[in-house]
């Protein structure tokens, strides 16, 4: 058996045409995300679809301020900090739509001890990854480009507050969505060294 074509078709595409993605299509992508497996038949996710310049700028600025502070504390030069934060801001502004995937405790179990509580949150986080993959596979099937952006997991509170989201919604992943720039050439997919990555027992 080889990898199914619909999975091969999803690639991280980081350049888009200016064409708008209509909201019905964006809703379809969120619905695809919402059929992902999740613990206890829960849906511990909330998706914020951002397709206005104002909201994109709010998010990019809020996360950018946090990143600027982190990079400065790391000792990165002010010029380099400006370069990195500006590039990240542009990346978000240039995407026709952004989907911000948040985690909540809705439907999750509560435990008296920190270890099981952490495991429960970890399960929810795994399911969020599955939901985001569903969304990107559905985007590829619709002829759309997408790319997962890690930023919110490093600054969930800043991302949440930038969009004035409810306190219990914690952003963990961001997906850029748009129509693919036909000029964009992705990196070749490296071969899969199965012997290093899996073992039978
Ligand atoms: C959790 C996660 C975070 C990622 N963050 C970024 C990111 O911040 N910027 C980016 O350009 N790509 C990001 N990616 C995309 C990966 O670079 C990409 O999936 C990987 O290089 C494999 O390429 P492919 O998606 O085209 O198969 C991220 C992917 C994952 C799963």
Q: What this model shows, in words?
A:
- There is one protein chain.
- This protein is an alpha+beta fold.
- It is built from 8 helices and 4 strands.
- Helix 3 (53-73) runs antiparallel to helix 4 (78-94) and helix 3 packs antiparallel against helix 7 (156-162).
- The structure holds flavin mononucleotide (FMN).
- Flavin mononucleotide binds next to strand 3.
Main beta sheet strand tally, sense and closure: 4 strands, antiparallel
Number of strands: 4
Q: Name the hetero compounds present.
A: flavin mononucleotide
Q: What is the succession of H and E elements? A: HHEHHEHEHHEH
| Structural class by secondary-structure content | alpha+beta
Q: Helicity, in percent? A: 40-55%
Question: In whole angstroms, how far apart are the ends?
Answer: 20 Å
Give the low-pLDDT segments.
Answer: none
- Adjacency order of strands in the biggest sheet: 1-2-4-3
Number of helical stretches of at least 4 residues: 8
Question: How much is the average pLDDT?
Answer: 97
Shape: globular
Percent of residues in beta strands? 5-15%
Give the radius of gyration.
18 Å
């Amino acid at each position: 058996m080889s990898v199914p074509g619909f999975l091969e078709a999803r690639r991280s595409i980081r350049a888009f045409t200016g064409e708008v993605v209509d909201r019905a299509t964006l809703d379809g992508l969120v619905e695809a995300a919402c059929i992902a497996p999740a613990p206890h038949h829960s849906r511990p996710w909330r998706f914020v679809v951002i397709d206005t310049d104002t909201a994109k700028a709010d998010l990019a600025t809020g996360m950018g301020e946090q990143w600027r502070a982190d990079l400065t504390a790391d000792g990165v030069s002010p010029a380099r900090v400006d370069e990195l934060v500006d590039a990240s801001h542009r990346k978000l502004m240039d995407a026709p739509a952004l989907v911000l995937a948040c985690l909540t405790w809705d439907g999750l179990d509560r435990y008296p001890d920190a270890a099981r509580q952490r495991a429960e949150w970890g399960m929810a986080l795994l399911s969020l990854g599955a939901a985001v993959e569903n969304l990107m596979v559905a985007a590829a099937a619709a002829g759309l480009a997408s790319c997962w952006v890690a930023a919110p997991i490093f600054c969930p509170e800043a991302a949440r507050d930038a969009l004035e989201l409810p306190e219990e919604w914690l952003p963990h992943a961001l997906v850029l969505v748009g129509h693919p720039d036909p000029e964009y050439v992705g990196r070749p997919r490296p071969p899969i060294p199965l012997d290093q990555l899996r073992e039978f027992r």
